[in-house]
Design brief:
The protein is of the alpha/beta class. The protein folds into two domains: 8-39; 65-263, Glycoside hydrolase/deacetylase (TIM Barrel), CATH 3.20.20. It has ten helices and nine strands. Strands 2, 3, 4, 7, 8 and 9 form a six-stranded parallel β-sheet that branches. Strands 1-6-5 form a three-stranded parallel β-sheet, with helices on one face. β7, α7 and β8 (221-226) form a beta-alpha-beta unit. α4 (109-119) packs parallel to α5, α5 packs across α6 and α7 packs parallel to α9 (240-249). It is globular, with a radius of gyration of 25 Å. The termini are far apart.
Length: 271
């Protein structure tokens, strides 16, 4: 019998067998993913942005998430995460004071409790935000744990600085439903960033790193930096004066995140 009379050539059989095998693997993968998904604690778990069926009690009922601000004005906000700590935070505060630059510090609650003397009375010209209690990944925690974490940090920051935070930045920029729900309950604005300091790309070259940041800023940029961490990050802090003078030479004014949010304008309609 010929291949055409048979209707199925050897090549056809091999191809169809391969497709069946591939489909079986894909089906097994999808089934495994579905089963894994079903094992997650969905209600009240890390992915859930609601708790139960009762009234949610989430502050104003909305949670703005901000990466940058749409504005035609040459405004930029410097932000520093993970502090305070005695090694680097005073260096940052001294540089900002010398150049009369306000900034926003996203503080870790446990660090505030441990090193409150580093910032006590020194943040009057600046703004503070909540960066969690111990810098754990809030996107992997359930709703009750995330709220307890942020609430504990909120209270520590308010006690030591005298300013209850109104902004929150989750560690690593990771967002989960539980994190969003907790932030809404605390009536926060959630602030990420649109430009990050990249110290590891400029080892031993503070001036080069400063030039990179100056060139990358646009009106309404929120810049992420750190005042705690790997010593390689000192490249950015040592280049902070050059960063400030370079941006001012481009006509930029430094503001806190909240001031930047207040200066935002609606995007121009293209319709």
């Amino acid at each position: 019998m010929t291949e055409s009379a048979q209707g199925w050539s050897r090549r056809d059989l091999l191809r169809r067998s391969a497709l069946v095998a591939t489909g079986a693997v894909a089906g097994a993968g999808a089934l495994n993913a579905w089963l894994t998904h079903r094992r997650l604690p969905l209600a009240g778990g890390p992915a859930s942005a609601t708790i139960g069926n009762d009234q949610q009690n989430v502050g104003s009922g909305a949670l703005p998430v901000v990466w940058s601000v749409s504005t035609t004005r040459r405004l930029v906000a410097l932000t520093f995460d993970d502090g305070p700590a005695p090694q680097w935070t005073p260096m940052v505060l001294d540089t900002l004071a010398e150049h009369r630059v306000p900034a926003t510090f996203f503080l870790v609650g446990a660090q505030v409790r441990r090193h409150g003397d580093v910032v006590r009375g020194l943040l009057a010209e600046h703004e503070v935000g909540n960066h969690s209690w111990r810098h754990r990944d809030l996107a992997q925690m359930d709703t009750a744990a995330v709220y307890d974490d942020l609430r504990r940090s909120h209270d520590a920051i308010a006690d030591v600085t005298g300013s209850p935070p109104r902004l929150v930045r989750p560690p690593y920029g990771h967002l989960g439903g539980a994190m969003l729900h907790a932030a809404a309950r605390l009536n926060y604005r959630l602030v990420l960033w649109s430009l990050q300091m990249v110290e590891r790309e400029y080892p031993g070259d503070p001036a080069g790193h400063a030039r990179r940041i100056v060139a990358g800023v646009r009106p309404g940029t929120i810049v992420l930096g750190h005042d705690v961490g790997d010593p390689r990050r000192l490249v950015a802090l040592r280049g902070l004066p050059d960063m400030i003078t370079g941006l001012r030479a481009r006509g930029y004014t430094f503001v806190t995140v909240s001031a930047l949010l207040g200066a935002g304008v609606a995007p121009t309609s293209t319709g």
